[in-house]
Design brief:
heterodimer, A: 157 residues, alpha+beta, Ubiquitin-like (UB roll), DNA polymerase, domain 1, five-stranded mixed sheet, B: alpha+beta, Aldehyde Oxidoreductase, domain 4, Aldehyde Oxidoreductase, domain 3, seven-stranded mixed sheet, six-stranded mixed sheet, 20 helices, 28% helix
C-alpha cells in the first residue's frame, strides 16, 4: 500500500513519519511515535478514551486518519506534566480520586484541559456538557466532577 | 497459627496512621501520566499481530475453511483453523462439565461471533486484510434463540452429542415450603425478565503469547483478571505441565468479571507456535468484545411466588429461573445462576425457600461473569415481590421490609439456602437512610407530583452483598476448587524498606494501596517506604486475585499473616540482642521493645539489617531472611449438604437505597430525581476506595436498570454490537447520591472488614425498578422487564391509557 508523509507536532516535538493513508491517528500516535498514553476504548468514536487536543480542540483520534493531522499541533497526556511537575488537572485527579482503573483518564483530562482553558470557572452544566462525550466505567463520574472543580480552582490565577 | 486482629485497635501501632483513612492511591501516578503498562502499550521484539475471523451465523455447519489466499498475502506469517485447535488443544473446560468446544470452530458454529480462523501478520492492518481472504463455506442450520423453545423436548440442539439443550436442572428446597404456602394468608406470583447486560470495561481484553518451541513453554502477558487461575486452564487446554506456563498480568483497564480471555490467549498461543515462537499480540476490538468476548451476563426468565401473612411477614419464597447460558458453559454463567444461593432471601428472615433452576443452551454468546455475579437480577425480582405484597396489604414499602428484616441480635444468622451472614444492622441502615431522605416529606412530594399528573415514584430497597467466596461456593453446579487462598510475601531490605509481592495485577480497586496501608501501620513505617510488586504465576505465593468481593478481606488476611510471621522472626533477633526471651519482646510503632524495659528497643529496619548483614548476631534458629509468606483462606469451609446448603461467602455487607424517579409519560424516559444510600461493609480500610466502589457500582446499576441491553434478533444476530446501540451511562445519566455509612464489623474477618467491591450493583437496579413501579401504580400497570427502557415504559403507559 502506498505511504504518505505526515508532519506534525506532538507536545511541542516535531515528528515526520511515512504512514499508510488508512492508518488512524491514534495508531500513529501509539504505535509509530510510541506515545501510548492515549488509549483506545471503542474504535468508533463513542467512548472518548482516545481524545487528544488538535490545535487546541479535543478530537477523537480513533476516527481520524493520521493524514488528516498533517501540519497540526497535537497535545496528549504525555504533554500535561512540565519539567517533572504534574499539571494541576493531574494533581486534581489524584487528590480527588478521579480515577480507578485509569484507562479512560487521559481522554477525560484532555477534554477537561480544553474546557478549563476556554472556561476557567465552568458551571456544573458546562462541565457535564464537556464530559458528556466520554465514558468512565469505574467511577460513576462523581470523583471526576470533583476533580474538574478542584483543577479549575488550582488553575485560576 | 497467626494472630486474629479483630479491629484496627489490634494493630501493633498506638494510633493507625494509614489504615481506615481515605489516603491517596499508590497506583495513581503511573495512570495519570499515561505510563501504566496496559497490554497494548507493550511491544516485544519480532512481535506479530493477530486478527480473528468470526462466524456471521448463529448456527451453521462448517463445510470447508480455506486459508490459502490469506496465507499468500505478504506479511502473513501464520494461519490457524479449527483443525489446529483439534490437534493441539482439549475442548474448553466448562461448568457444568461437558458443554465446551474448541477455541476455533470445528464441526459447526454455535453463535454469531464465534472464532472460526485466525492469522498472525506483521501488523494488525495486514492481519485484518488477510481475514477477508479466508474462504468459509457454511450450511446454515436453524438458530436456537428462544430460551423457552430451546428447553422444550424435541428442540433443535446446540450440541449434537447431548440429548437436549438442558445444561443443568435442579430443584433446591429449604425448610417447609409447601406448608408455608398452604398456610399463607396471601400468595403473590409474578413473572419477570432480565435481559443480558455485561461488564464492558473501557479496555477490552488483550494478550501477547509466546510459545517457546525448543523448551515447549508458553509465556503470556495480558489483561487477565486472575492470571494464576487462567494459567492453570491453559496448561490443561494445551496438555502442558503447569510449570511450563508463565502468566504475567498487566495492569488493566477494568474488568468487572469480563477479563477471562481463554479464547484469545489460546488462539495467539497456537499462532505463536506456528510462527516458530514469535510473540503474537491480539487486542480485542470493541465489536469483538461485545459480540464474542466476556461481555454478556444474566439472560433470565423468572417466575416468583411469595407466601405472606396478613401482617406482611413473608414466610416463604419460591424462585423459578430459566437462565439462558448461550452456546457453551465456558464462561461461568452457571456460577452466576448459583450465586444467589449465597443471599437467596436477601435481608429477610424467610426460612422456607425453593430454587427451581434450569440452565439452557442457545445459539447466543456464552454467558460470562459480571460484577455481582448473579444476585442483582435475583434481588430485582425479590424486591419487586416485597413491594407487590406491600401494596396489596396497604403497608408502606419501608415498613414491610422492616417487619421482615433479620433482627440485629440474630447474627451470625444462617439463611434458608445455607449461607451464614456474619453481622448486620439492617433496621439501623433503613432508619438512617429514611432520615437522610426525609422519607415522609419525600412521600408528600410524590403525592404533590401525582396530583399534578406526573408519574413520580419512590423505591426503598435493602440488599446483601455476599463477600469472599470460597472453594465450596459453586461445587453444587460442578465448579471445584475456585476460591483458592490469597497469598502475600512480605520482605524488609537492609535499608528497612518494605516490599510485598502479590499475584494479582492492577485493575482499579486500589488494592495495592490497601496492602501498603496495612504494612505501613503494621511496621510503623511511612507509606512511601512500602512498595507492592506483582509476581507472575510461577513466583507468586498461592493466589486467585479479585472476584466475588473477596480481595480486600483476603488480602488483609494475607498481609497480616505474613507480617505476623515476619514480626516473630524480628522479635527473635531483638530478643537475642537484648538477652531476653522472645516472649519478652513486642512490636509496637515500628520498634521491637523489651516489654519490661521500654528503652531497650530496636527498630524494625535495624533488625532486618542485622539479619541480612550480621550472621554472628543471629539466633541459631533464625535464617538470615527478613521475609515471610502467608496465604489466607477462610476457616470452616466444608462441602455443601444434599440441598446445596453451605457456608460459602464469609461476609454479608448491607446497603439500603432510597430513590425517587419521575417517568415522562410522553416518552417513557426515567429521570432520577433523588438518591440516598447507606452502606455497611464493616470496617472501611480505605473509605475513599469504598466510596468509589459504591458510586461506580451505582452507575453500572443505573445502566442495567435503564439503558444497557444485548439484543438478539430471531436469527440470533446481535443487534447491539457497538456503543451506539449498547448504551453505557454517561455523566448525564448517573445521579450523585447523598451517601452515609454504618460500620458493623464482621466478627469473622481480619480487622472486621467485609467484601465491598461489587457494591451498589446489588441494590440499584432493584431500587430503581421499585421506584418505577411505584410511579406506575396509579396506571395499574407494572414494569416487569429490565432494562426499563423508554420504549418499554412508553408502551406500558400508552397501553394503560388506551385501556
Amino acid at each position: 500500500m502506498p505511504s504518505r508523509d505526515v508532519r506534525l507536532s506532538v507536545n511541542g516535538v516535531s515528528y515526520e513519519a511515512s504512514v499508510e493513508p488508512r492508518m488512524t491517528l491514534v495508531d500513529m500516535l501509539r504505535h509509530e511515535l510510541g506515545l501510548t498514553g492515549t488509549h483506545v476504548g471503542c474504535e468508533h468514536g463513542v467512548c472518548g478514551a482516545c481524545t487528544v487536543l488538535m490545535d487546541g480542540r479535543a478530537v477523537r483520534t480513533c476516527i481520524m486518519l493520521a493524514v488528516q493531522a498533517d501540519g497540526a499541533e497535537l497535545m496528549t497526556v504525555e504533554g500535561l506534566a512540565k519539567d517533572g511537575e504534574l499539571h494541576p488537572i493531574q494533581q486534581a485527579f489524584m487528590e480527588e480520586r478521579g480515577l480507578q482503573c485509569g484507562f479512560c483518564t487521559p481522554g477525560f483530562m484532555m477534554s477537561i484541559h480544553e474546557l478549563l482553558k476556554a472556561t476557567p470557572d465552568p458551571t456544573e452544566e458546562e462541565v457535564k456538557d464537556a464530559l458528556g462525550g466520554a465514558i468512565c466505567r469505574c467511577t460513576g463520574y462523581e470523583a471526576i466532577l470533583q476533580s474538574v472543580r478542584s483543577a479549575a480552582k488550582k488553575m485560576r490565577p | 497459627m497467626t494472630d486474629f486482629l479483630r479491629s484496627l485497635d489490634d494493630l501493633p501501632v498506638t494510633t493507625p496512621k494509614w489504615v481506615g483513612k481515605p489516603i491517596g492511591r499508590v497506583e495513581d501516578p503511573a495512570l495519570i501520566t499515561g505510563k501504566a503498562e496496559f497490554i497494548d502499550n507493550v511491544t516485544l521484539p519480532g512481535m506479530l499481530h493477530c486478527a480473528i475471523l468470526h462466524s456471521p451465523h448463529a448456527h451453521a455447519r462448517i463445510k470447508s475453511v480455506d486459508v490459502s489466499r490469506a496465507a499468500a498475502l505478504p506479511g502473513v506469517v501464520a494461519t490457524l483453523t479449527g483443525e489446529d485447535a483439534e490437534r493441539w488443544t482439549r475442548k474448553m473446560y466448562t461448568t457444568p462439565d461437558g458443554w465446551g468446544m474448541y477455541v476455533l470452530a470445528t464441526d459447526k458454529v454455535r453463535f454469531v461471533g464465534e472464532p472460526v480462523a485466525a492469522v498472525a501478520a506483521t501488523s494488525r492492518y495486514v492481519a485484518e486484510d488477510a481475514i477477508e481472504l479466508i474462504d468459509v463455506e457454511y450450511e446454515p442450520l436453524e438458530p436456537i434463540v428462544d430460551a423457552f423453545a430451546a428447553a422444550q423436548p424435541g428442540s433443535p440442539k446446540v450440541f449434537d452429542d447431548h440429548d437436549d439443550n438442558i445444561m443443568y436442572k435442579r430443584l433446591f428446597s429449604w425448610g417447609e415450603v409447601e406448608n408455608a404456602f398452604a398456610n399463607a394468608d396471601h400468595v403473590y406470583t409474578e413473572t419477570f425478565r432480565w435481559n443480558r447486560v455485561g461488564a464492558n470495561p473501557l479496555e477490552t481484553f488483550g494478550v501477547i503469547s509466546e510459545w517457546n518451541i525448543v523448551e515447549n513453554t508458553l509465556t503470556c502477558r495480558g489483561s487477565f483478571q486472575t492470571p494464576s487461575y487462567i494459567a492453570m486452564g491453559r496448561a490443561a487446554t494445551f496438555r502442558l505441565p503447569s510449570n511450563k506456563v508463565r502468566f504475567i498480568g498487566q495492569p488493566h483497564g477494568g474488568s468487572f468479571g469480563g477479563k477471562g480471555g481463554g479464547r484469545g490467549t489460546d488462539i495467539t498461543a497456537m499462532l505463536s507456535r506456528k510462527a516458530n515462537g514469535r510473540p503474537v499480540k491480539w487486542i480485542e476490538d470493541r465489536m469483538e468484545y461485545l459480540s464474542s468476548g466476556g461481555s454478556q451476563a444474566w439472560d433470565r426468565h423468572y417466575e416468583v411466588s411469595i407466601a405472606v401473612k396478613d401482617d406482611g411477614v413473608v414466610t416463604a419464597l419460591r424462585v423459578k429461573l430459566l437462565d439462558d447460558m448461550g452456546a457453551t458453559a465456558e464462561g461461568f454463567g452457571a456460577t452466576g445462576a448459583a450465586k444467589p444461593m449465597a443471599s437467596f432471601t436477601g435481608c429477610y428472615a424467610i426460612q422456607n425457600a425453593e430454587y427451581d433452576l434450569t440452565l439452557v443452551a442457545t445459539n447466543k454468546l456464552p454467558a460470562s461473569p459480571y460484577r455481582g455475579m448473579g444476585p442483582p437480577p435475583h434481588n430485582f425480582v425479590l424486591e419487586q415481590m416485597m413491594d407487590i405484597a406491600a401494596r396489596d396489604l396497604d403497608i408502606d414499602p419501608a415498613e414491610i421490609r422492616r417487619r421482615n428484616f433479620i433482627p440485629a441480635d440474630q447474627f451470625p444468622y444462617i439463611i434458608a439456602s445455607g449461607n451464614e451472614y456474619d453481622s448486620g444492622e439492617y433496621e439501623a441502615a433503613l432508619d438512617r437512610v429514611m432520615e437522610m431522605a426525609d422519607y415522609q416529606q419525600l412521600r408528600r412530594e410524590q403525592e404533590a407530583a401525582q396530583a399534578e399528573g406526573r408519574l413520580a415514584g419512590i423505591g426503598v430497597v435493602s440488599t446483601i452483598e455476599p463477600g469472599v467466596f470460597d472453594w465450596n461456593a459453586y461445587t453444587i453446579i460442578g465448579t471445584r476448587g475456585i476460591g483458592i487462598p490469597e497469598g502475600v510475601t512480605v520482605s524488609i531490605d537492609t535499608m528497612g524498606k518494605i516490599t510485598a509481592r502479590v499475584g494479582f495485577p492492577l485493575e482499579g480497586q486500589g488494592q495495592y494501596t490497601v496492602a501498603s496501608q496495612l504494612l505501613a501501620d503494621y511496621f510503623g513505617a511511612d507509606i512511601e517506604d512500602v512498595r507492592v510488586v506483582l509476581a507472575d504465576n510461577l513466583t507468586a505465593p498461592p493466589n486467585f486475585g479479585p472476584g466475588g468481593s473477596r480481595l480486600g478481606v483476603a488480602l488483609t488476611g494475607a498481609v497480616l499473616g505474613a507480617s505476623a510471621r515476619l514480626r516473630d522472626k524480628l522479635i527473635k533477633v531483638a530478643a537475642k540482642l537484648f538477652e531476653v526471651q522472645p516472649e519478652d519482646v513486642e512490636l509496637m510503632d515500628g520498634e521491637l521493645r523489651v516489654k519490661a524495659v521500654p528503652e531497650s528497643k530496636l527498630s524494625v529496619g535495624n533488625a532486618a539489617a542485622i539479619m541480612l548483614n550480621r550472621s554472628d548476631m543471629l539466633p541459631d534458629d533464625v535464617d538470615p531472611s527478613p521475609e515471610a509468606t502467608f496465604a489466607w483462606t477462610a476457616p470452616g469451609r466444608v462441602e455443601p449438604d444434599e440441598q446445596g446448603r453451605v457456608k460459602s461467602y464469609l461476609t454479608a455487607a448491607n446497603a439500603c437505597h432510597i430513590v425517587m424517579v419521575q417517568i415522562d409519560s410522553g416518552t417513557g424516559k426515567v429521570d432520577i430525581l433523588k438518591y440516598f444510600i447507606v452502606d455497611d461493609c464493616g470496617t472501611r480500610l480505605n473509605p475513599a476506595n469504598v466510596d468509589g466502589m459504591v458510586q461506580g457500582a451505582l452507575a453500572q446499576g443505573v445502566g442495567a436498570a435503564l439503558l444497557e441491553e444485548y439484543v438478539y434478533d430471531d436469527d440470533g444476530q446481535l443487534l447491539t454490537a457497538s456503543f451506539m446501540d449498547y448504551l453505557l451511562p454517561t455523566v448525564h445519566e448517573v445521579p450523585i447520591p447523598e451517601k452515609d455509612a454504618l460500620v458493623t464489623p464482621s466478627p469473622f474477618t481480619p480487622l472486621g472488614a467485609k467484601g465491598a467491591g461489587e457494591s451498589a450493583i446489588h441494590t440499584t437496579p432493584a431500587a430503581i425498578m421499585c421506584a418505577i413501579n411505584d410511579a406506575l401504580l396509579p396506571l395499574g400497570v407494572r414494569a416487569k422487564e429490565v432494562p426499563a427502557s423508554p420504549n418499554r415504559l412508553w408502551k406500558l403507559i400508552h397501553d394503560a391509557q388506551q385501556a
